[in-house]
Amino acid sequence: MPPRGKKPPAHEKPRPLEVVAEEYERHFRAHFGARWPALRTALLSPCVHAALANKRYGAGAPAELADGGAEALPLALACCRRRARGETFAPPPADASGLLAYYLIDAAALLAVEALDISPGDQVLDVCSAPGGKAVAILQHLDLSRGQLVCNDASAERCARLRRVLGQYVPREQSAAVRVTQHDGAAHSAFGRLFTRVLVDAPCSTDRHLLQNTLELQRWTTLSPAKHAERQLSLLCRALQAARSPAVVVYTTSALDARENDGVVRAALQRFPERVRVRAASQMPFGEPTPLGGWLVLPDTSGGWGPAYFAALLVADVAAPLPPPEPVGDGGGDDSSDDGSDASTGEEGAG
Ligand SMILES: C[S@@+](CC[C@H](N)C(=O)[O-])C[C@H]1O[C@@H](n2cnc3c(N)ncnc32)[C@H](O)[C@@H]1O
């Protein structure tokens, strides 16, 4: 198989593909047992997209979203549709002010946003926000005359892309309610204790991406999920501290390894016993519960959506602030893809 994907940094010498592929195979066969061959096949298939309607779009509903144009998905967001397998959506049209009619997204990502249980007046923080897919979904739940959204990302380059995306979905006159910040989300006090809803869409192994990009797969080792988990825990602990209780914090990844999923949530619960608990996921249109009360969407059984993991955490209504977490190290060194390592601080409006 010829190498495909982004070239790894020069200091990370890729290992022979056959060796890594065999290790990866053995690792996930042990993880998923008899399910793995079908799951691997589904992960290697092209991604499926839903079209999420932009409620702030100023022209009539486009044909792509009309009844019969695509199948409605059973989500709280009324206008979210999918094409039959193999069909694609046309690029979204723009209205007179440049706002786009819809955003193409994996429906599993929308379930994670639904788990936030957003009310129109919520103050929402999206800790790892770029390029902004879940932020666009959050915006559909908010009334921007009352609610607010802070979209953060550590990467300057990805923040620039995030601002472009937000500008295509939020009218200029409402853009003061949507801010973009550039912080390391794991840094202490990056956000203050202000938010009623917090989303942590953590950088992770992104296994579907890994399997489809052999150059990046060559950087994978059996230790990679544990290294990601260390940084993910740090991000989740800081996110819990940014919650103004009672609040909902949703932790989500697109990783397969349980160490990056239930493992991180379990460690966070141990850090903050009595203050934080899992709100067990209620039945969703696709996916399966995890042992800890999270939810896992895997493409072999979901009709192609995912992989996605999420867990909703309830932060108790207590006056005392949560104690700062122990330092967990930088956890870096093995970033497979969705990473933002050029962190610096900054803040500005979206749009
Ligand atoms: C899985 S992607 C987020 C996808 C995004 N939520 C969406 O729906 O489009 C993870 C993001 O985390 C950012 N990131 C990595 N480390 C971070 C950190 N320490 N603090 C904040 N963001 C970070 C990356 O730059 C990347 O954009």
Features:
351 residues; alpha/beta; 4-stranded antiparallel beta sheet; 14 strands; globular; disordered C terminus; binds S-adenosylmethionine; RCMT; transferase; rRNA processing; RNA-binding
Q: Would you kindly provide a written description of the structure presented here, covering whatever features stand out?
A:
The protein has helices spanning 17-32, 36-44, 107-114, 133-141, 156-167, 207-212, 214-217, 224-241, 262-271, 299-302; strands at residues 50-53, 71-72, 80-82, 102-105, 123-126, 148-152, 178-181, 195-201, 243-253, 276-279, 288-289, 295-297, 308-315, 347-349. With 351 residues, the protein is an alpha/beta fold. Strands 5, 6, 7, 8, 9, 10, 11, 12, 13 and 14 form a 10-stranded mixed β-sheet that branches. Strand 11 (288-289) and strand 12 (295-297) form a beta hairpin. The chain is globular. Residues 109, 127-134, 152-155, 158, 184-186, 201, 203, 235, 338-340 line the site of S-adenosylmethionine. It comes from Diacronema lutheri (Unicellular marine alga). Residues 22-316 form the SAM-dependent MTase RsmB/NOP-type domain. This is NOL1/NOP2/Sun domain family member 4.
